[in-house]
Amino acid sequence: xxxxxxxxxVNTHGIKGEVKVTVITxxxxxxxxxxxxxxxxTDTAIPQKLTLKTVRPFKQFYLLSFVEYTDLTAxxxxxxxxxxxxxxxxxxxxAGDYYYHQIIGLxxxxxxxxxxxxxxxxLSPGANDVWVVERAGKSDLLLPAIHDVIxxxxxxxxxxxxxxxxxxxx
Length: 170
Description:
By secondary structure, the chain is mainly β. 7% of the residues lie in helices and 44% in strands. The chain has helices at 28-31, 72-75, 100-103; strands spanning 3-13, 18-23, 37-41, 48-58, 61-66, 82-86, 107-109, 115-123, 130-134, 141-144, 150-154, 159-162. The strands form two sheets. Strands 1-2-5-4-3-6 form a six-stranded antiparallel barrel. Strands 10-9-8-7-12-11 form a six-stranded mixed β-sheet, with no helix packed on it. The relative contact order is 0.15.
């Protein structure tokens, strides 16, 4: 089974077994609902299927508890664990929208098909995502994921065509 990360447990919260989660999905309200299943993976273990007991937003985080874990001591071992879903739970996207895992790893080329590098990470600092392009012998290139810069995404060719606006590649 293939898994995709939708969050990360950053700490415990309170004494009743809640965990504080950083969300890494655009579908938090659908993913995190009482009664739904989620997979939790610590550094050393295979993903463990857990049932969400309670879910509530808390500042920029979510607080979750699991049916299988009932107290603070039990959830301590889950600190820094990844929250995953399996591939069958991915929601279909509108045309022109992509999951992060589809973008990361794509080759980046300019309008003349010169290779600029490879997308290694996606940042979400605010109004739009920023794609981090790893380049050989140069510092990383930061590309805002906007239509003026990202001209074409071709998953079959494993590449993204971009137009570098003034000031992007100093």
